Structure formats: structure tokens, C-alpha cells
Amino acid sequence: xxxxxxxSTRIFGMFTFKKNSKVQAIRHEIRPTLSxxxxxxxxxxxxxxxxxxxxxxxxxFSYYERSVFGAFGEGRFGxxxxxxxxxxxxxxxNKKDTSAAAVKKITLIxxxxxTSGYNFLQDSFxxxxxxxxMRTNLFEKISISASAVVVPYLTNSNGEFIDKLVWNRKVAxxxxxxxxxxxxxxxxxxxxxxxxxxxxxxxxxxxxxxGLPLNEYQQEAAYISNNPxxxxxxxxPWSFSFSYAFSYNRVPNGLGxxxxxxxxxxxxxxxxxxxxxxxxxxxxxxxxxxxxDLGMISMYLSREMHCWQMAIxxxxxxxxxxxxxxxxxxxxxxxxxxxxxxxxxxDL
Length: 348
What we know:
Layout: E1 3-8, E2 11-16, E3 23-39, E4 47-51, E5 58-62, E6 77-93, E7 103-119, E8 130-138, E9 142-151, E10 153-155, E11 161-165, E12 175-188, H1 216-226, E13 238-252, E14 259-276, E15 279-288, E16 293-294, E17 297-305, E18 308-317, E19 320-329, E20 339-346
Antiparallel strand pairs: 1-3, 2-3, 3-6, 4-5, 6-7, 7-8, 8-9, 9-12, 10-11, 12-13, 13-14, 14-15, 15-16, 15-17, 17-18, 18-19, 19-20
């Protein structure tokens, strides 16, 4: 249960250049937000404190921590939430259009936001960590998103945060506790309006949020995600997509004496090629750079047969290996009508 009210607005600014300049103008949009809210502590009785190591450190746990839906958070909040988001665009002359007034818009930063909050009812650490997010799309080809969490407090000799703002000693936003950056790009031939099949390489048969088994439609979506050959788009002659993810987390060192930095890097790729107007070959996979571990590599061969489609999917390496051959109609109304043969091999 919570109560609140908030306000927001948008502020625009424009910086213009000379009339004959290639860059005509730069437009900056600022979106500040401010809200006041109150949330009573209705779950305090379901939490308890327990010692976690020989050094006497303790931690709060919930009686329902391992239940189906997880634990409801404790604590009350009465204070302010505030943030600011930014968008920057640029107007340049369009080389493809020879008219005098021909310009096009280029987005430099889709969004750059900083959010936090202040809890007046809390005994200590009233100022919440700063959440920083940024997203942009370079040259309409490279998508970049990044996020970070910064805690605005000082630390003791063991790396634990103490209730003293970092600004009391130095000019800084705080200590970085986690950060992520993801870079994605996609290249393709043919009509740009055609849709590519999405492959998330889902292997779990459980819902990642609720922990419950997937329902019929979720299972179908997961099956399509793991078997892109069955939904291949033959109107796209070739395609290739690539993604890179980097993450940093400040984690305990396991000795109870401080914290250490943990880094993780992953790359994944997906590609397809039409061998003929009726045959398509594709492959996707991933690689963990940090662990030097090759993820699931999947290859497929699809055959277009007018109202039907045949697909052969093979995952020859990785923890989850599988082989699948299926013949199914293209119509979504007949998606349950299929001939399928699947074999799984697990390396646990």
C-alpha cells in the first residue's frame, strides 16, 4: 500500500548555427520529475535478523524468502523521489535532398537520466543510491545502453557504508557499486520493414519471475525462440546481428574483510543466409569472455514449402545439446498441427 503525488515538466533549449553550416541546430530537452509518497511498513513482522558469519555480521531475512512469489519488502517510506532525464538531437543538412530547406534529425542521446530519493522516516542512510541510465543509437545501426548505481556514502576500513555523505570529504557523486553496458548492431539485406525472428536462447521451462511452469503460450514462445528455423523469413536474403554485454559489480570478497570487483563480459551473434529462394541456413551462439566458456551454438536449415515449412535445428555444443526436425503449417491458427521429432542431451 502506498500513497503519493508527483509533478513533471519538459524544458526545451535550442542552439542554432550559421545558415550555411552543415549542422543547423542542436536541440536539448530536459524532463525533471518530483514526487512525494508514503508507504507504511506492513511486513515488518515477517522479517527477522540472523548472524551470517563468525565475525558477528548479521542480515535481515524473510520467512517467505523462498516462496513461489518471493518476499514482500519491509520498511516504511515517507519522502521525496526526484530525477532528471535528457534528450539531445541535432539537425543536419540532408545530402540526399537537394532542396534548400532539406534537413534531417539525428538523435545523439535518446535518454540520460539520474534518479534518487530521500526518506525522512528512515533512521539512517536517508538518501537513496543514484540510478544512472543512458541509451543512444549511433548512425541508426549501433544501439548502446548503459546503467550504473552510485551510493553517496563513505565506507569504513572493511568497505561497509557508513552514514556519512561522501560530499563531506570530497567532491564526488559517490561509490560505484554496479554498472552495465550493452552494445547491439544488426545488418540485413532486402526490405527493411521485414521482421527477423527473435532468439533469446531460453532453455528454462520455468517463468523467471514467478518460478511457475510456463503456460501453453509461453511454452510456444520459448519453443519458437529456441527454434528460429521454424519461423524463418525468406524475404530477407541475409542478416547478421551482434551484441556485447559488460557488467561490473562490487561484491563481498568472501573473507568478511572487504569487497572486490567482479567483471563479466559476454558476446552473442545471430546470422542467416538464403541459399536459394526456398532454402535458408542460419546460426546463432554466445561466448562468455570472462569464463572463456562457449555457450549454446545452434544451427538451422529451413525449407519453404508453400503453406508449410520444414526446419532442422541442431545444437551440437554447450551444456544443452539438442536435435530437432519439424514440419508445420505457416498459419498461426494451425500452430498446434505439426510433425516434430526432438532429442535433448544435457551436460550437467
